[in-house]
Design goal:
Blueprint: H1 3-18, E1 37-38, E2 50-56, E3 60-68, E4 73-82, E5 85-91, E6 104-112, E7 115-123
Antiparallel strand pairs: 1-2, 2-5, 3-4, 3-6, 6-7
């Protein structure tokens, strides 16, 4: 049995039905106050798409990009100004040209409020 996949699915159900982000310990995950941060993507691993939650300390410029394991940018999901607080973006597993990316490991990168935060996701077909 793949326990990591099961845990990811349970966390996804909890967050979608109860609107609460949960880590593998069942404890709510919150970024440090005043810091822009990515939270764990869900589901992870994913097939069709993954939700990318993030938190911003204040309104400002935000850039979220997806990179392959070699560091090449696959897609820019967001480049603009967003209000502070908890937000989410969706990555549907496609590149800049709308082509479905290969199975593998990808790095989500958030640049905001003078900080850079990353999360790793796994794409499975």
């Amino acid at each position: 049995m793949n326990h990591d996949a099961l845990r990811s699915n349970v966390e996804f159900v909890l967050s979608e039905f109860f609107s609460e982000p949960y880590g593998s310990t069942g404890v709510e995950i919150l970024p440090p106050a005043g810091v822009a941060a990515l939270l764990p993507c869900r589901p992870n691993p994913f097939g069709r798409g993954t939700v990318i939650p993030y938190a911003l300390p204040a309104t400002g410029a935000v850039r979220i990009t997806v990179h392959d394991i070699a560091g090449r940018r696959v897609r820019t999901l967001l480049s603009g100004v967003r209000q502070g607080g908890s937000r989410e973006e969706l990555w549907d597993g496609t590149d800049t040209f709308g082509e479905v990316v290969a199975s593998g490991v990808y790095v989500i990168r958030l640049e905001a409020a003078g900080t850079v935060s990353t999360e790793t996701v796994v794409r499975l077909r």
